[in-house]
Specification:
Elements lengths: L1 H20 L21 H7 L5 E2 L13 E6 L11 E6 L5 E5 L13 E6 L4 E4 L6 E7 L8 E3 L6 H4 E7 L7 E2 L2 H4 L8 E9 L18 E8 L4 E7 L13 E11 L2 E5 L6 E5 L8 E2 L9 E3 L15 E6 L5 E5 L5 E6 L12 E10 L5 E9 L7 E7 L15 E2 L25 E3 L7 E10 L6 E9 L1
Parallel strand pairs: 10-11
Antiparallel strand pairs: 1-6, 2-3, 2-5, 3-4, 5-9, 6-7, 7-8, 11-12, 11-14, 12-13, 14-15, 14-16, 17-19, 18-28, 19-22, 20-21, 21-28, 22-27, 23-26, 23-28, 24-25, 24-27
Length: 473
């Protein structure tokens, strides 16, 4: 106990005097703390020996032969941004094989920054292909005890700098970057490598939230989804401890750089700092507004939807805008083939599956000056307990057909303006179309514009909304 106290006291004093005598709080200058060794083995040599069972490197060396072997690699990861924790990802000098070394320390980027060449002493080390991550790991032995299998554990804080040696060589990390498409990168051969993907953007479901979302987290991190123009997707995992965790998810399109990892069969892309998220281009709308070719601002309308084909989403007289998410209003019929036709929207994606987050507008042109009223009929199915339908109007001066709707220009008339949209009990459905009331167009509302029906769905709010008999008079 006395020895422990002495060590702690010495450490505290060293910290205090270090702060008092030095007003420079930047990262420490470690330029003199480096040295070059001679590699005797390659990363590939170790990878060839690795299996899913932990091995002692010493046991792989023939009797009478020294185990004092050294491998060399470049660092690809960084814990500067708080998204990596007590682990260093590296890649062989030729860039063909990545691996990781768990280390029981913080701020590893101050010594082992991306592009830094390091040497690893293999004597007394343990290694394996981690069954949980599929990646090669090199470190100490973590004995789980019988009957559990052993694992590779962290290098201890008092020893790791003698095992992982910082060389005096540092290359530009750009020379380590592998530029790939999403499908090409999703391969175990790319684990722990530094990869950059381009032409990608975060999903609609993530945009508007923060990189770490406490309402959408697994194991203290959020699995954000990015996609490319072809619909290929990838998880970008952000820890709650990331320095940028509370920042809003970018809505733009561009490049993302990071280190590929894997857990329980699923690939995860790990950015190191916010600087790895290089989204500066205009967002690609994967579900652009469908603008009809016969939009007319009429004073009257009687729309029963009987003349349209089943599943139609392109309406000549209207605008169908998947503002958020990939789904559009479509023509449906019940009973199919003989029954009533109507437009329908739902976020439902099948039993047991999360819903597809959607906010979709159905826009009806109108001459506000000449018209007096608007009404419609609705039917709610499989109600999930939250508002699923809103009604607005917007002036044509505030909206260009085919452009993004400026929500600040929408006037909400869902309730208190003649409409009273009712819902069935949670889990129940309405079995007939009913009118929620009539909106009387105020005399002050003149000129052309649109009545706007908005469906709102989430991963849990999957109520089906059906609309029929839109009437303007």
């Amino acid at each position: 106990m006395k020895n422990i106290k002495l060590v702690l006291t010495t450490a505290i004093f060293a910290t205090l005097f270090g702060c008092v005598n030095n007003d420079n709080y930047a990262d420490p200058d470690l330029s003199g703390e480096c040295g070059d060794l001679t590699a005797t083995k390659t990363v590939q040599n170790i990878a060839t020996l690795a299996t899913g069972t932990v091995k002692s490197y010493n046991s792989t060396v023939p009797p009478g032969v020294s185990a004092d072997d050294i491998i060399e690699a470049y660092v690809t990861s960084s814990d500067e941004g708080g998204n990596f924790y007590k682990s260093i990802s590296m890649v062989s000098l030729d860039g063909t094989k990545g691996f990781s070394v768990p280390v029981d320390d913080y701020n590893l980027y101050t010594k082992f920054e991306p592009g830094r060449k390091v040497y690893i002493r293999m004597k007394n080390r343990y290694f394996y292909n981690n069954p949980l991550t599929n990646g090669l790991e090199i470190g100490n032995l973590f004995d789980n005890g019988e009957p559990l299998a052993d694992e590779v554990g962290r290098l201890e804080i008092v020893e790791y700098q003698d095992i992982v040696k910082r060389s005096c060589t540092k290359v530009d990390e750009n020379t380590l970057v592998n530029t790939m498409t999403i499908p090409a990168m999703l391969n175990d051969a790319n684990l722990n490598k530094l990869i950059e993907i381009s032409g990608v953007q975060f999903s609609d479901a993530n945009v508007g939230k923060t990189y770490y979302d406490s309402n959408n987290q697994i194991g203290g991190a959020t699995n954000n989804i990015v996609s490319d123009a072809l619909g290929n997707t990838l998880i970008v995992r952000i820890s709650e401890f990331a320095t940028f965790a509370a920042k809003p998810v970018s809505s733009l399109n561009g490049k993302i750089r990071g280190v590929l990892t894997k857990y329980l069969g699923g690939y995860q892309f790990m950015v190191r700092t916010e600087n790895d998220i290089m989204l500066t281009n205009t967002r690609i709308d994967s579900a652009p507004p469908i603008v009809g070719n016969a939009n007319v601002f009429d004073a009257t309308l009687n729309e029963p939807f009987t003349s349209y084909a089943l599943n139609l989403a392109n309406f000549p007289k209207y605008i169908n805008d998947a503002d958020f998410g990939p789904r559009y209003w479509q023509i449906k019929q019940f009973p199919t083939g003989t029954g009533n036709k109507y437009i329908e929207m739902s976020s439902f994606a099948g039993n047991g599956n999360p819903g597809v987050p959607c906010k979709t507008f159905f826009m009806v042109p109108v001459n506000f000056t000449a018209a007096s009223t608007m009404t419609f009929k609705k039917e709610m199915r499989f109600f999930r307990g939250e508002v699923a339908l809103k009604v607005y109007y917007i002036k044509s001066a505030d909206y260009v057909p085919g452009s993004a709707v400026d929500r600040t220009k929408l006037t909400d008339i869902t309730s208190g303006s003649g409409f009273n949209i009712l819902y069935p009990a949670i889990g129940a459905s309405e079995n007939s179309f009913t009118s929620p009331g009539t909106f009387n167009i105020p005399a002050s509302l003149t000129g052309n514009g649109y009545f706007v029906f908005e469906y709102i769905g989430t991963d849990t709010q999957t109520t089906t909304v059906q609309i029929d008999d839109i009437t303007i008079g």
